[in-house]
C-alpha cells in the first residue's frame, strides 16, 4: 500500500477536488479553507528525509507521507512565497508537504509552502506576510517565515504570534535565516532553506517537534490502479497565471502546469506534482 501523500496544494478561489483518495495519517488543519487550493503532493522526486521500511508505519504529521521517526514529527516550517511573474520559477515546491495558493494584492497570487519531513536547500523567493497566510501558519503551531508584511499583518503578528507560531521575519530577528541571490532583483531575491529556518527558529525559542495536541488529519492509502479515474484536467485561472493540473493514473498524481507549460522546481529540476488538489 503506497502512501503517496506529498504536496497538498490548496488553491484559494476555486475548489477543485481530485479523483484519487486522500492519505492516511496527518494532522488536521483547523479553521476553514476559504476559496483556496490545497495540493497534497506525490512522492518527492529527489531524496531528502529517508523513508521507513513498509512495516515501520511512521507517517509524517502534516501530509501522512512515510518517513523516519527523526523527520516525521519535526516542527512545521511555513513560508510566504512570491508569485509575481519575475519571481518564477520558485524553488521548494517538491520538498513541501502542503502548498497554499491565494489571491494577493495587485492582482497577484501568493504561495504558502509548508515543510516537515523533507528538506529543501533552496526556498524562495520569500516575500511579505498577509493576514490569511499568518492565520494558516497559526493552525500548525510551527514557524512562520516571511519578509515583513503590511501594517495590519505586522500589528496582528506582534500582538498574537506568541503561543501561535515562531515569527521568523526577514525584517526582524529572523533576518539571519535569509540571504539575497544575485540572479534576481530585489524584492524578488530573498531565499532561505529548511536548515537555515530550523536553526534560526531554535535560536528564537521554537520547539523542535509538532504539537500533538493539534490533532492529525485522517488519510487513506491510495486506490488500486484499476479503481482510479482515467484522466482529469483542472484549470484555475488567476489574473497573472493559468494553473493547470493533469491527472496521471499510473502515478496517482496531478502534474502541475503554469500557462500550459510544465512547472519545474529549480531546487531539484523535477516537475511539480500533487497527489491531492482541493
Structure description:
The protein is built from four helices and 19 strands. It is of the alpha+beta class. Strand 12 (233-237) and strand 13 form a beta hairpin. The two termini are 23 Å apart.
Write the layout of secondary structure elements.
Layout: E1 8-12, E2 24-26, E3 36-40, H1 69-72, E4 77-82, E5 98-103, E6 109-115, H2 131-140, E7 143-146, H3 151-160, E8 166-169, E9 179-180, E10 190-191, H4 194-203, E11 217-219, E12 233-237, E13 242-248, E14 253-258, E15 261-262, E16 264-265, E17 270-271, E18 273-274, E19 276-277
Parallel strand pairs: 1-5, 4-7, 7-8
Antiparallel strand pairs: 1-3, 2-11, 3-5, 3-19, 4-6, 5-6, 9-10, 12-13, 13-14, 14-15, 14-18, 16-17
Summarize the structure in short.
The protein contains 4 helices and 19 strands. It has 278 residues and is an alpha+beta fold. Strand 16 and strand 17 form a beta hairpin.
Amino acid at each position: 500500500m503506497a502512501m503517496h501523500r506529498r504536496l497538498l496544494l490548496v488553491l484559494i478561489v476555486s475548489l477543485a477536488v481530485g479523483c484519487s483518495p486522500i492519505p492516511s495519517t496527518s494532522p488536521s488543519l483547523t479553521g476553514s479553507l476559504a476559496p483556496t487550493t490545497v495540493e497534497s503532493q506525490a512522492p518527492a522526486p529527489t531524496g531528502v528525509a529517508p523513508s521507513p521500511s513498509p512495516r515501520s508505519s511512521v507517517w509524517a504529521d502534516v501530509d501522512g507521507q512515510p518517513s523516519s521517526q527523526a523527520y516525521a514529527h519535526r516542527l512545521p516550517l511555513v513560508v510566504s512565497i512570491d508569485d509575481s511573474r519575475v519571481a518564477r520559477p520558485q524553488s521548494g515546491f517538491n520538498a513541501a508537504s502542503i502548498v497554499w495558493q491565494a489571491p494577493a494584492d495587485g492582482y497577484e497570487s501568493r504561495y504558502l509552502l509548508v515543510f516537515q519531513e523533507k528538506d529543501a536547500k533552496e526556498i524562495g523567493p520569500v516575500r511579505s506576510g498577509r493576514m490569511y497566510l499568518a492565520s494558516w501558519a497559526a493552525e500548525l503551531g510551527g514557524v512562520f517565515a516571511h519578509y515583513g508584511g503590511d501594517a495590519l499583518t505586522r500589528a496582528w503578528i506582534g500582538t498574537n504570534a506568541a503561543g501561535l507560531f515562531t515569527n521568523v521575519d526577514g525584517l526582524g530577528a529572523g533576518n539571519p535565516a535569509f540571504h539575497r541571490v544575485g540572479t534576481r532583483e530585489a524584492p524578488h531575491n530573498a531565499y532561505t532553506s529548511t536548515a537555515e529556518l530550523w536553526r534560526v527558529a531554535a535560536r528564537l525559542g521554537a520547539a523542535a517537534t509538532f504539537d500533538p495536541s493539534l490533532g492529525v488529519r485522517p488519510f487513506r492509502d491510495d486506490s488500486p490502479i484499476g479503481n482510479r479515474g482515467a484522466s482529469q484536467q483542472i484549470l484555475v485561472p488567476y489574473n497573472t497565471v493559468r494553473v493547470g493540473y493533469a491527472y496521471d493514473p499510473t502515478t496517482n498524481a496531478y502534474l502541475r502546469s503554469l500557462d500550459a507549460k510544465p512547472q519545474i522546481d529549480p531546487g531539484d529540476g523535477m516537475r511539480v506534482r500533487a497527489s491531492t488538489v482541493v
